[in-house]
Amino acid sequence: MSPEAVAIVSLVLLFLLLFLRMPVALVMLVVGLGGYAYLTSTSSALSMSALTVYSTFTTYSLIVIPLFVWMGFIAFYSGLSGKLYDIAYKLFGGTPGGLNMATIGACTAFGAICGSTTATAATMSAVALPEMKRYNYQRSFATATVAAAAILGVMIPPSVIFILYGVSTGESIELLFLAGIIPGFFLTGLFMIMAYIQARLNPSIAPSGQSVSLQEKLKSMLSGGMEVVIIFLAVMGGLFMGYFTPTEAGAVGAFATLIVSLLRKTLSWEGFRNSANDAVRLTAMILFLTATAEVYGNFLGRTGIPGSIASIAVEAPLPPVVILIAILIVYLVLGFFIDALALVLMTTPIFYPVALALNFNPIWFGVIVVLALGMGVITPPVGANVYVVAGVAKDIEVMEIFNGIWPYLLAIFICIAILIAFPQLALFLPEMARV
User: Fold this and answer.
1) Overall average pLDDT of the 242-258 stretch
2) Distance (Å) of CA 134 to CA 142, 149, 202, 318, 416
3) DSSP string over 133-191
């Protein structure tokens, strides 16, 4: 078979095994290793895979992953996430759908100190769902809001998916972080609008909470909100001003979160140990997934299929925006079955050359990719965020959560469409940083 034919067979085999629920990392390793051995030799394939795994685990830029992951777990175990929800509730609780809007706001704030969508989903489920249950919010409406709003954990920097996209493509992680800020807050606004509209159309699903005075709102923001602002500014401000690299920003962020937690006296020794254990466990999973994706990416590079696809896309008699929409449809469909972290690592070697060939800005394209991946974590049958929320809630069926997802999915579509029409929403801050 020709190298291109081998690549196509490998893709079919890859997705077949994934649909059979085989572990993603293992599938990419086996298919990539087998394909590379077929094209070269078994010894070459084994040598390539060993060097790839070793180089991945010793890549300096990937040190940022455990640092930002630990930063999020420190915030969780110190109770900072609960403080954020309390602030958001006082700001929005008295409006229709106020608790949902508070959850969305808290997810946005937590996203500034946590780079994982599933970690955000788990944290906010534990914090927000008991409150919404106490106020008799419809279960589907409440749980779907948590699952969808957790996407903001990877849109608002720091973001593990932005880091993986940057490492896979060689693009600046710093610029990717900056590019996600405005679209992230814009998506926050769209989610809040969707929650408000649903509550206004059907008040029974979201009874209004207690109104809080302006003085109390300001007091809560100053007492707890400033801590998150300080941490966020320490990380992003230093990056924006060029004081340190993204890797150093991870260390600064983890240290700042730890110091804030210790000063508040809310982080116990057990919580500290749990945060470190959970960070190590999640980091090992991400790095192994990254290494196996690199093995598969090396195999695809050997076949030449990414360049062939890019050439076909350029030569096709279609406007670039139509090709972009086709790529987004592929992400949506694959997101039905494949986890977001695995999907970005699998598809970047294929679609990144296409984006460059079509003269798409790679930083802007990265934001579009992260939004597209956000659709996958809330759509059936995989919908990782939905399963996380269901695991925390325990008394609700998964399909009941999926039924409430569609308004938020529409908000993501709208956000992507506006970013396609107005790329400067994503590029404004990165261009300022380049000046």
Assistant:
1) 82
2) 11, 20, 18, 53, 35
3) HHTT--HHHHHHHHHHHTTHHHHSSS-HHHHHHHHHHT--HHHHHHHHHHHHHHHHHHH
Measured at the CA of 54, the angle between CA 5 and CA 164, to 5 degrees, comes to 70
Q: Look at residue 25 and give its three-state secondary structure.
A: helix
Tell me the C-alpha distance between 75 and 80, whole Å. Answer: 5
Where residue 418 falls among pLDDT bands split at 50, 70, 90?
A: very high
The DSSP secondary-structure symbol of 62 reads: G
Q: Cα 377 to the chain's mean position, in Å?
A: 9
∠280-285-290 over CA atoms, to 5°?
120
- Which pair of tokens denotes residue 420? 């396609």
Query: 292, 54, 75, 309: which is closest to 164 by C-alpha?
Result: 292
Is the whole model's pTM more than 0.90, yes or no? no
Q: How far apart are CA 428 and CA 108, in angstroms?
A: 20
Angstrom distance (rounded) from CA 78 to CA 66: 18
Sign of CA dihedral 122, 111, 338, 32: negative
3-class DSSP state for residue 311?
A: helix
Per-residue pLDDT tens for 314-341? 677 788 888 898 888 888 877 776 767 7
